[in-house]
Amino acid sequence: MFLAHITDCGTQSLKEHCQNSAKIARDDLSCIELGNTAYLTALFHDCGKAHDKFQQYLIDSHNGKNVRKGSVIHSFAGISYFLNKYHNVNDPFQKITSEIISYSIGAHHGLFDVFNPEKQNGFTKRLTTQPEYDNKSVANFLGEVIDQETVCETFNLSVEEIRHSLKSISEIQKCQTEYFFYLGLLCRMISSAVMDGDRTDTANFLLNKKYNRTDNPCKVWKIINDNISRRIQEFSSDTVIRKSRRELSDICYNFAGCNSGVYRLNIPTGGGKTLSALRFAATHSLKREMNRIIYIAPLISILEQNADEIKNAVGNEYVLEHHSDVIVNTDDPEELDLRKYLEDSWDSPVIATTFVQFLNTLFSSKTSSVRRFQSLCNSVIIIDEIQSVPSKMISLFNLAINFLSKLCGCTILLCSATQPCLESVEHSIMVDGNIINEKDFRKYSEIFKRNTVTDCGNLRLEEIPAFVIDRSKDNRSVLVVCNKKAQAEFLFNDIKPYFKNCFHISAGMCVAHRKNVLKKIRNLLSENEPVICISTQVIEAGVDISFDCAIRFSAGMDNIIQTAGRCNRNGKRSSNSPVYIVHCSDENLKMLPDIQNAKQATESLIVNFKKNPDHYSNDLASDASINFYYRSLYASYCTNHFDYPIKDMPSLLEMLSDNPKYRSDTDYFLCQSFKTAGGKFDVFDSSSTSVIVPYGEGNEIINNLQSYYNDNNYLALQKEIKKAAQYSVSVYEYQFNKLLKENAVIPMCNGSFYVLSPEYYNDGTGLLEKKKEENICSILIL
């Protein structure tokens, strides 16, 4: 008997592990009619362990002998079997099925490139490295785990499944690039199910427990729908605003019988978007027997705020909140094991997560991300603030959404008060309809309208403080949002002497610092005290705060409307509050091209708006205005901007599709550089370093980190690292090097973390480039 795993508590046979993994993988993808393919692939994923060499390696490793990890390769045998047996045929569907199965077997410990940047073929390497070992392993495997006849029967079923999937791909692709991109996602889906089956069964054995898939989803959806209904009944309809929120919620509820697809949910600010979207999702899940609901927010601050609302409506036990700042308040090993399983598999009725986690699930090469991809099947996916998808990856995003919708049974809600025109780019999204029709949207926009956006023309930076002070005469609270921190600090220092309550907020301040400042501001606003807040765009989303007046440096209309959302937010002022757009004529945005392009698109809108305001419903924030803005913005970019371009390399879209620059032969249908592309994928620019600052509890956390590190107390260290995120600031590479040169940042825990010297942090504006006593505050964070 060949073994798959050995522990001090016992052994697991290879047959048991492969069969268990195969059943889990089949369950993952049966809902999208790929169950046989997933089963067969997962069954063979460890067939290379059926060899005396690997068995000895396994025993030696368990006995503590000095063995080199990976010295006996077990992931090539399955590739060898399927390509040698099924690829040398005339039937293209057999060929491509054998490739997908082979790739997913070979990638179960990590993605590899079919063609890498050196134009080497990953299949060829795996076929020629150890043919004798692979042949012997396969022969042993077929003798112990499954017979040849059953393999052939199951493979033929897989061919039909892949044929059906390829037919669906042919119906939605518009060009060769899109066809191969969808083919790559199909391959990723099979790989994901294999990884999930393998890791779930391995965890069950090693931890001596069994993690089962969520049982009886219909029963769960009934409970969740009842909980949401009770929550909605708690809200009265005694005002026009509350009545309108209920009506919008009812529209979403009534729409929930729709087929799976991609739908826009355009609800005005203050209209109860989160609860309405959740009500649609829960009702749709019950009617269509969906697997789960996945709520996605662009920022952790928005997620934390809305996750609480979701938990209150759905029931805390049905929601998994998954993002980098989640702190698990337990030391119980079983609870920690369960938490890890849920985060790795997303096996929960409702997931609340971030853009980063979701987009990594789609495109990152990390095995944890690839594994979660299968969990998206047959789900309702709510994407909040859809306009926040970085423009450089719109092509990837659009095509992935099309794939999830048309091949994976997903229903996707694109939520925003400023819906981007994602269908206007070359690789467009396929939208099936709007939940709120245009007539209703105009009606409710008027009801929820709380401010009026006005263009104030050009002003030099030095003229803006006087403009702010003048506006404060008619408004007790004023919010100013700048494009750069240098602008925000200039205004703050210039205006502060004239006001008792003047505050600065920017990314140069750690999260805890920003939260404390916001708490002070909220308290003052609640007491109707005069307040001036000078901020960068960090205040625009996920911050529940309301000012009487807002001033926004000219930028994208989505940013301007986000700022407007912090003005008369709760509709307490009887008349519409003013939101002013100011064009800072002497600002330099060369280092911020996205803001520069968005600003130019806004200015183009304003020019056209002034020529024909009726066409835009006399409102810069109308649907027509936003549509014009996005079309102008997207037209300003070169075509491949949306394809995730990479310097001195093909774009990610190219590498994940037909890969013309790296493909060196046409022996295989698959040709993608999966590993290289996934390794280059980064949602936001991560060429920055996180520095822990000595603000508030930051000093205590710094001491604890060093203490726990010295004591090898890794569980406590992990918790402290999570806390440190609230007391950290990210700096760009050139800024970090400058601080390092001045001994302003100090490495600790053997260089695992960096700590900022107290002389370089200011209670007013955060991180400084020069020491406090030098009284020079050249600002680092834009």
Rough shape?
globular
Biggest sheet strand line-up: 5-6-4-7-8-3-9
Strand content: 5-15%
How many structural domains are formed by the residues? 5
The name of the CATH topology of the largest domain is Rossmann fold
CATH class of the largest domain: Alpha Beta
CATH architecture of the largest domain: 3-Layer(aba) Sandwich
**Sheet bearing the most strands, described?**
7 strands, parallel
Mean pLDDT: 92
Low-confidence stretches: 774-782
Radius of gyration: 28 Å
Tell me the name of the CATH homologous superfamily of the largest domain: P-loop containing nucleotide triphosphate hydrolases
Figure out the total of helices.
29
**Structure classification:** alpha/beta
In total, the number of strands is 21
Helix content: 40-55%
What distance separates the N and C termini?
Answer: 62 Å
Topology, pairings included?
Elements: E1 3-7, E2 10-13, H1 14-29, H2 35-43, H3 52-62, H4 77-86, H5 92-106, H6 122-128, H7 131-144, H8 148-172, H9 176-206, H10 217-233, H11 240-255, E3 262-265, H12 273-288, E4 292-297, H13 300-314, E5 319-322, H14 333-345, E6 350-354, H15 355-363, H16 367-372, E7 379-383, H17 394-407, E8 411-415, E9 433-434, H18 438-448, E10 451-459, H19 464-472, E11 477-481, H20 485-495, E12 502-505, H21 511-526, E13 531-535, E14 549-553, H22 557-564, E15 577-584, H23 593-611, H24 623-635, H25 652-655, H26 674-680, E16 688-692, H27 698-710, H28 714-724, E17 728-732, H29 733-741, E18 745-748, E19 753-756, E20 761-762, E21 766-767
Parallel strand pairs: 3-8, 3-9, 4-6, 4-7, 5-6, 7-8, 10-15, 11-13, 11-14, 12-13, 14-15
Antiparallel strand pairs: 1-2, 16-17, 18-19, 20-21
